[in-house]
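User: Sequence in, structure out. Go.
Assistant: Echoing your sequence, followed by the structure tokens.
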Amino acid sequence: MKENNKEGVGNEYELPASYNSSDEEVIIDQAKKGNKKALTQLVKNYEQTVYNFSFKICRDRDKAENIMQETFYSMVKHLNQFDSKSKLSTWLYRIVANHCLMQARKEKNRQFVSIDNDESLYEEKYAVDYSRLPSKYTENEELKKILDTAISKLSPDYRMIFLLRDVEGLSTEETAEAAGITIPAVKSRLHRARAFLRNELTEAFQQ
């Protein structure tokens, strides 16, 4: 008697003959059907991106590793809820962001610079789009070290927006979706974060 196997995460499937590792829609579709190879491919495609972004927000290797594992666990568990209207990377950024913010809220002893009520940061002269800086500046080791220290002073809410927009290169709309906030809120936080970082860099080089 022939066994009737139902599709599920526990079953093994072969990817179609036309499968191409760069064809993400095929991989996602197969992963939703329980294809373990497709799920493994998705993890492989994004594990470095997810880990790097986790580390940039939480600033700790062990926590970044844990958040990466939690992110992929959430991805596997909720992949059928992904509707492909946005990029999978944007969806994963949001999962990472949620885990990082939850982690940050548990660390009540951590102190960050408050920039919510600093109206001087709205002055246009202080805002710098770091995603457009020439490579000669971004590759300067001294500048990178100072900038990294300044970024670590930002609260996770502001740090996340700055990283998504100016480091990861997401659009304003994608950043809003990944962060789960409105576009005006993204613009406001990004402007304040950029201005704060410029102030920090200016003070560092004046010393």
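User: And one key feature?
Assistant: The chain has a mean pLDDT of 79.
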